[in-house]
Specification:
Blueprint (H helix, E strand, L loop, with lengths): L9 E3 L1 H4 L6 H15 L2 E5 L5 H15 L3 H5 L11 E3 L16 E5 L26 H25 L16 E8 L12 E4 L5 E6 L6 E5 L4 E4 L7 E5 L1 H6 L9 E3 L8 E8 L19 H9 L7 H8 L3
Parallel strand pairs: 1-2
Antiparallel strand pairs: 2-10, 3-4, 4-5, 5-12, 6-11, 7-10, 7-12, 8-9, 8-11
Length: 322
């Protein structure tokens, strides 16, 4: 079977969100469980996020990244203890990559008025744009994908035989980060450079919106030892599990490698990923007997510690047991 014949499952979540007949919810739970066990990824429709909200978000991303470079640099996430704000193209380089990512990005998260726990909780950095052009559509979209991430978590838990109520043990004040991305045209990237190089996601559930018709996402399929392209289709989201879910589930759910290569020579490409992890001091809720007692915060520091400007005191606070 060629990779052209391979496609990630497309699951209609409406059977879970708004069931119409007996067995609808159970069918969706089974489909998601199977997809995440086999691929670690699936596509979804019937997700209950209005198309107008998606289009408004993409328009806001374009407005943001069209700002003058010097103005965007004033919003740099490197100057923010909570790592909110702008990431310039070329600032992200993973171990083993020959070249840095070509993408530029902008980060927001929970809107907490006080900086807490090494900055993992704190206020957002909002660009000096009219509220109706950025902050309102972006925040409305963030809340919608926050909700969808929670629903996916519910489904994943039930797929392993756990009750929805288990979320109360690790998602009272979950870290939910959103990353807005613009990839330059292929013609503007260096030979061998990726928009985002091959990686697995760190933690929980990822809810990904791709600009319709602007392809670029590829998922590594272990059993075929090849990259599978995931088309960017209007009103269809891509959902995947991160490393933390794979570990917490005892490897029952996969965390798959993926990368992005903008296929368009002369057009940029937009996307937006919302990452729903869990409370900073949460440990494995699926297995209380798990000998690995690392918290979500500790796992974050282990993966991204060199990317955060953390004081010794704050790092110690996050690494301490709750």
């Amino acid at each position: 079977m060629s990779t052209e014949e391979l496609k990630l499952p497309l699951i209609d979540l409406s059977g879970y969100i708004d069931p119409k007949a007996p067995g609808d919810r159970e069918r969706v739970i089974a489909e998601v469980k199977d997809a995440c066990a086999k691929f670690g990824f699936f596509q979804t429709k019937g997700h209950n996020i209005p198309l107008g909200l998606q289009k408004g978000l993409l328009k806001s991303i374009d407005t943001l990244f069209d700002m003058p470079k010097e103005e965007k640099r004033k919003l740099s996430f490197l100057q923010n203890v909570s790592r909110r704000g702008y990431e310039e193209s070329g600032m992200s380089l993973r171990d083993g990559d020959k070249l840095p990512d070509s993408k530029e990005a902008y980060y927001i998260g929970r809107e907490d008025p006080v900086i807490e726990h090494a900055g993992f909780y704190g206020p957002n950095v909002w660009p000096p744009l009219p509220e109706d052009q950025f902050r309102k559509p972006v925040w409305d979209y963030y809340q919608a994908t926050h909700n969808l991430g929670s629903i996916i978590w519910e489904i994943l838990l039930q797929g392993l035989g756990h009750p929805i109520s288990l979320m109360e043990s690790f998602a009272k004040k979950p870290m939910v980060m959103m990353k807005m991305i613009r990839y330059p045209p292929l013609a503007a990237t260096l030979p061998g450079q990726f928009g985002v190089g091959a990686h697995t996601d760190f933690g929980g559930v990822t809810v990904l919106l791709q600009e319709p018709g602007k392809h670029g996402l590829e998922v590594w399929l272990e059993e075929k030892e090849d990259w599978v392209p995931v088309q960017a289709v209007e009103d269809v989201y891509v959902i995947n599990c991160g490393d933390m879910i794979m570990r917490w589930s005892g490897m029952q759910y996969k965390s798959a490698k993926h990368r992005v290569i903008n296929k368009a020579d002369n057009e940029s490409r937009l996307s937006c990923a919302t990452f729903f992890h869990g409370d900073i001091f949460a440990t494995n809720p699926l297995n209380p007997e798990d000998p690995n007692k690392e918290t979500v915060g500790q796992l974050l520091i282990k993966r991204f510690g060199n990317q955060f400007s953390l004081s010794k005191e704050w790092k110690a606070e996050v690494q301490a047991a709750a």
